[in-house]
């Protein structure tokens, strides 16, 4: 159901340096895919379309439509836009609806207000999200793609036996207790 | 136990609409991904403190105010509402208004999962609950600080949820009563 050649992890991209131009192309470390970078001092208002991956450290307002490519919003990125991408990864702030053709990843430092639509959505602990998540399977993916895979809980707390009164840390509630 | 009871009735081939009134946690998103869910996360208490703190001082809550605190898409009908332990942190008038408001977004058969602290002291803020699997849940609290409990008794919750049927009630050993309510209004159920 998923291509074996997973897209590069957007989080591993090197941090972009402030640049005097609105867009710069960098090569990802592990592949020949190119991506455009919107540096931290750049502010864009309007619709963006294209055919390469995009990394945003600046401010964007409008619409980002890169359905066949990966879009990542870095820690400095502030986006007020609906985003269409293949894999969308957020470390910064987004206000808008996110449509991931394959996956949406909200990293620990992210703040997102909007609705997410993707077959797979993962939220890291610490991410601040408000809105809805629709994990609609790809239409052609069949029943096996209905999210039946179970992902290991991210940083699940260590179970502690409950004691009398309000529990001090975390604990596991078991049936019958 | 309440969660087990809730999950027993859920099928992986049905599409569910779930409202979680706690914080969005990756563990829970991963858990619900086995169902064809649309998940709505509205961290009610944090949102209240951060965005509408004055609302806590209001005598009562009207619909416009609740619409600002809990902006839900009009016409949405939830199959499951996860209140967790939120009920313990609101005064009775506010609770009544909240439940009345939520009822507008329920359909016949909507399940509401809630917890009531029966201990004299409760954590200072609502806890974070992680669904580890269909039988296990973990809870976390921000700090060890406590505050006096709400004093709500099971009968108070019964009165509050008078439009709901208590499909299950489970007393856990650390002083928490779990409830699973089902919305009672006449009509046809959502997912068979």
What features would you describe in this structure?
The complex is a heterodimer of chains A (177) and B (192). Chain A is built from no helices and 13 strands. Chain A is globular. By secondary structure, chain A is mainly beta. Chain A has strands spanning 24-27, 34-38, 43-49, 53-56, 59-66, 71-73, 78-90, 93-95, 98-106, 111-117, 120-123, 128-134, 171-173. Chain A starts with 23 loop residues before the first strand and ends with a strand. By secondary structure, chain B is α/β, with parallel strands linked by helices. Chain B has a six-stranded mixed beta sheet with strand order 2-1-3-4-10-9. The interface between A and B is large, with 45 and 45 residues. Strand 12 (128-134) of chain A pairs antiparallel with strand 2 of chain B, so a sheet runs across the interface.
In short:
The complex is a heterodimer of chains A (177) and B (192). With 177 residues, chain A is mainly β.
Strand order of the largest sheet of chain B: 2-1-3-4-10-9
- Calculate the mean pLDDT score of chain A and round it: 74
**What's the main sheet of chain B like?**
6 strands, mixed
Write down the overall geometry of chain B: globular
In DSSP terms (H or I, runs of 4 or more residues), the helix count of chain B works out at 6
| Low-pLDDT residue spans of chain A | 1-22, 140-165, 168-177
Terminal CA distance of chain A:
41 Å
Name its key features.
heterodimer; A: 177 residues; mainly beta; 13 strands; globular; B: 192 residues; 6-stranded mixed β-sheet
């Amino acid at each position: 159901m998923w291509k074996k050649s997973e897209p590069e992890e957007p989080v591993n991209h090197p941090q972009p340096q402030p640049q005097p131009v609105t867009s710069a192309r960098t090569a990802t470390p592990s592949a020949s895919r190119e991506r455009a970078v919107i540096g931290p001092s750049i502010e864009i208002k309007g619709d963006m379309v294209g055919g390469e991956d995009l990394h945003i450290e600046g401010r964007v307002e409008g619409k980002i439509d890169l359905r066949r490519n990966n879009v990542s919003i870095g820690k400095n990125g502030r986006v007020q836009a609906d985003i269409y991408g293949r894999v969308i990864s957020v470390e910064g702030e987004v206000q808008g609806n996110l449509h991931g053709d394959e996956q949406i990843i909200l990293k620990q430092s992210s703040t997102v207000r909007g609705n997410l639509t993707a077959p797979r959505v993962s939220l890291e602990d610490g991410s601040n999200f408000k809105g809805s998540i629709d994990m609609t399977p790809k239409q052609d993916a069949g029943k096996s793609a209905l999210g039946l895979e179970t992902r290991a809980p991210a940083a699940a707390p260590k179970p502690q036996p409950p004691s009398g009164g309000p529990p001090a840390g975390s604990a596991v509630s078991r049936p019958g207790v | 136990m309440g969660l087990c009871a809730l999950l027993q009735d859920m099928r992986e081939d049905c599409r569910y609409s779930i409202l979680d009134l706690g914080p969005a946690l990756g563990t829970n998103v991963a858990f619900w991904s086995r169902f064809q869910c649309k998940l709505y996360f509205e961290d009610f208490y944090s949102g209240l403190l951060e965005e509408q703190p004055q609302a806590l001082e209001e005598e009562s809550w009207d619909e416009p105010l609740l619409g600002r605190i809990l902006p839900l898409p009009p016409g949405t009908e939830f199959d499951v509402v996860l209140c967790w332990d939120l009920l313990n942190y609101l005064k009775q008038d506010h609770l009544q208004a909240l439940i009345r408001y939520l009822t507008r977004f329920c359909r016949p058969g909507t399940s509401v999962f809630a917890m009531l602290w029966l201990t004299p002291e409760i954590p200072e803020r609502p806890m974070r609950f992680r669904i580890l699997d269909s039988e296990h849940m973990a809870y976390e609290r921000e700090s060890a600080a406590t505050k006096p409990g709400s004093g709500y008794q099971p009968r108070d919750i019964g009165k509050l949820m008078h439009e709901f049927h208590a499909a299950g009630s489970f007393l856990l050993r650390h002083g928490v009563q779990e409830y699973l309510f089902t919305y009672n209004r006449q009509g046809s159920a959502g997912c068979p």
